[in-house]
Amino acid sequence: xxxxxxxxxxxxxxxxxxxxxxxxxxxxxxxxxxxxxxxxxxxxxxxxxxxxxxxxxxxxxxxxxxxxxxxxxxxxxxxxxxxxxxxxxxxxxxxxxxxxxxxxxxxxxxxxxxxxxxxxxxxxxxxxxxxxxxxxxxxxxxxxxxxxxxxxxxxxxxxxxxxxx
Length: 165
Known about the structure:
Layout: E1 6-8, H1 16-22, E2 26-29, H2 47-56, E3 60-64, H3 69-79, E4 82-84, H4 93-102, E5 109-113, H5 116-126, E6 129-133, H6 145-154
Parallel strand pairs: 1-6, 2-3, 2-5, 3-4, 5-6
């Protein structure tokens, strides 16, 4: 349940062609350490261009975050993407809401994220495909102690190799 469908170094490595080959028409995206570093209000370099390329190819995008509206909504607005806040990942209710808003089926969506115990486990439990991306930066011990502990517990299960086209 902790194994992703595919593992990539960065969200920007996801191409429309890769998604088309997988039959994916929609992505449910994590925010922190997937699209930007923790608590950063600005997308990482290349992310806005990647979002524009996905939209241009007709890929539907939704942010699905365990974070609260004051963090998620401004970030979503800056990218022009709808969001599901307080998603309670790895529980499936947030994924269900995002998928319904896209009017797609489970076999047409994938979850993209950097954490095995929330994003990947949740996607696999929900019954859709999962795309693991390597975290952008290590978490601070002061602010994200719980996530740092999860990172230690994830280590034996992390993908041993990353997809290369």
